[in-house]
């Protein structure tokens, strides 16, 4: 895929084909995987017949998953196309630098819910609803802490890193950086909800959400991108993520799975977590700026000191904020159990 994108840029110089090659190559890759699996494992095949009702349910789930994947893939594609259309290729290159740093951190963070996907699915299938809801709340709390720390690191280290890497001429203003950080926070806020949505098999119930989100994102991109440029594109994505990705997506999970639990209470807790992340990020940023103003070191040492501050300060602040939180006790148990399992494996 990447080789095809490079060849298109060099030979044709067409950025729209460069963007379009991603879904095309993904489709071809899936076909190749399917054929390879059939050749390598010919002994694994389906036999017997299933009822029409089961077939209908499978088709529904597959359609729901396909729509979900299309929505996720189209989000950045729409953003990139609108930016290149309004602002040109230089702006999309600058935007992409920031975007791929953000997504690299998110992909690393997403290893957490992805690694427990099978156990959550097993728990949803076998355990009572109350236990799964308590696990959901505890995991959401822990994940919010970790993602909040990552958000704080981005707020404090984004611009110093970009200055070291590409220089001042290819940097976005601080307003865009803060919007990227909010974008990142909302992406993370949906991860645990999506984990339980997938575990409960609620893809078909979210079919309208993903379609509406894609259309709304495209319309808002056109409108806000025209008036506010890159910031408008980011605001458009943030709005759709907040209202449709987190809001509507969370409603589906609570309406069809956590039926007797309060969705409004969950939204209030979610907003409280986001407010805590914003507070910690702001305080850490102010402290980093204060330290910079005192020592006035070169760019590399400034980046290193900021990195050290970001390791210590945000976690101390989160510990202070959450010391009496109702999920803190279970979070400690999960942390020490995980730590002990790692230690025993090494021994």
From TrEMBL:
Coiled coil: none annotated. The keyword Nucleotide-binding does not apply. This is Polysaccharide biosynthesis protein C-terminal domain-containing protein. The chain crosses the membrane at residues 6-28, 81-101, 140-158, 170-196, 235-258, 270-291, 303-322. The keyword Plastid does not apply. It comes from Bacteroides stercorirosoris. Keywords: Membrane, Transmembrane, Transmembrane helix. It comes from the Bacteria.
């Amino acid at each position: 895929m990447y080789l095809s994108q490079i060849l298109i840029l060099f030979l044709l110089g067409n950025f729209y084909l460069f963007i379009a090659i991603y879904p095309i190559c993904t489709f071809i890759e899936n076909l190749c995987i399917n054929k390879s699996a059939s050749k390598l494992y010919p002994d694994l095949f389906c036999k017997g017949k299933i009822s029409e009702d089961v077939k209908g349910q499978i088709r529904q789930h597959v359609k729901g998953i396909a729509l979900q994947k299309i929505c996720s893939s189209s989000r950045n594609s729409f953003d990139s196309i609108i930016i290149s259309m309004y602002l040109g290729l230089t702006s999309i290159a600058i935007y992409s630098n920031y975007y791929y740093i953000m997504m690299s951190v998110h992909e690393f963070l997403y290893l957490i819910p992805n690694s427990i996907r099978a156990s959550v699915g097993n728990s949803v299938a076998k355990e009572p609803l109350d236990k799964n809801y308590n696990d959901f709340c505890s995991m959401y709390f822990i994940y919010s802490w970790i993602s909040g720390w990552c958000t704080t690191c981005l707020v404090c280290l984004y611009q110093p890193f970009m200055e070291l890497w590409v220089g001042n001429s290819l940097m976005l203003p601080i307003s865009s950086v803060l919007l990227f950080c909010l974008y990142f926070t909302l992406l993370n806020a949906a991860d645990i909800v999506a984990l339980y949505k997938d575990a409960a098999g609620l893809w078909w119930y979210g079919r309208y959400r993903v379609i509406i989100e894609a259309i709304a994102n495209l319309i808002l991109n056109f409108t806000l991108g025209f008036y506010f440029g890159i910031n408008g594109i980011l605001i458009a994505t943030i709005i759709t993520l907040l209202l449709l990705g987190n809001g509507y997506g969370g409603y589906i999970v609570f309406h069809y799975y956590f039926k007797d639990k309060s969705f409004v209470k969950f939204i209030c807790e979610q907003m409280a977590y986001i407010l805590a992340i914003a507070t910690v990020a702001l305080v850490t940023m102010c402290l980093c700026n204060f330290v910079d103003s005192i020592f006035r070191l070169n760019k590399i040492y400034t980046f290193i000191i900021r990195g050290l501050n970001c390791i210590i300060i945000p976690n101390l602040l989160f510990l202070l904020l959450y010391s009496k939180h109702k999920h803190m006790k279970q979070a400690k148990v999960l942390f020490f159990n995980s730590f002990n399992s790692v230690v025993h494996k090494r021994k």
